[in-house]
């Protein structure tokens, strides 16, 4: 019993620095940041709820292009907001507007790629998604931000793709679990339960994606690669 207690009392190993952070620690850091900034992080889920509401109201399948455009416009708000929350970058700037515009453009092909298979969509976001924080944090122009985002992704593409895939899996599983709990024990309607579940859980994927930028920047900077204006 004493040995078991000693093992239980051993402190956890210190987290690895961003340049060496694993996918598991990426998820853990996203959860920690969520808890430390709960209300601001929770607001990141509002655009997701709006996108879901539009999708549910468009169950007939008409107006798909409008839905994709609306999703790009709304989801990009959450991503830019998450980057600002993680890095401390200012949102009231021209860089924020440019980052948002890049986010919309990068997201537009994602729904089409996902209809083919999930992996191509995630690979697309992994390759160019980091252009958004590059524009916001490093204050780069559009072309320089896209190039920088691509270089950041290539610094450790497996980490970016694996991180996005893991975040997506965690969010999907958590969202479904919370949905069923709300349906069974809180007597919520189906749509209300789904909306609450997406509101609470979806911010994790945006926070984790923003942390990926920190990780990849540390990896790339450790090699002496600096952005060019």
What does this structure look like?
The chain has 229 residues and is mainly α. The chain has one domain (22-55, 62-221). 77% of the residues lie in helices and 0% in strands. The termini are far apart.
Task: List the keywords.
229 residues, 13 helices, 0% strand
Please give the structural blueprint.
Layout: H1 2-9, H2 23-36, H3 38-43, H4 46-57, H5 64-87, H6 94-107, H7 110-116, H8 118-128, H9 131-137, H10 142-155, H11 157-185, H12 190-201, H13 203-221
Helix pairs in contact: 2-11, 2-13, 4-5, 4-12, 5-6, 5-9, 5-13, 6-9, 7-8, 8-11, 9-10, 10-13, 11-12, 11-13
The average pLDDT score comes to 86
Helix content: over 70%
Number of domains: 1
Structural class: mainly alpha
Measured by DSSP, the beta-strand proportion falls in: under 5%
Q: Summarize the helix and strand pattern as letters.
A: HHHHHHHHHHHHH
User: Unreliable runs, pLDDT <50, ≥5 residues?
Assistant: none
The value of Rg in angstroms is 19 Å
E-strand count: 0
Quick one: overall form? Answer: globular
End-to-end separation in angstroms reads 61 Å
Q: Profile the largest sheet.
A: none
Short description:
By secondary structure, the protein is an all-alpha fold. It has helices at residues 2-9, 23-36, 38-43, 46-57, 64-87, 94-107, 110-116, 118-128, 131-137, 142-155, 157-185, 190-201, 203-221.
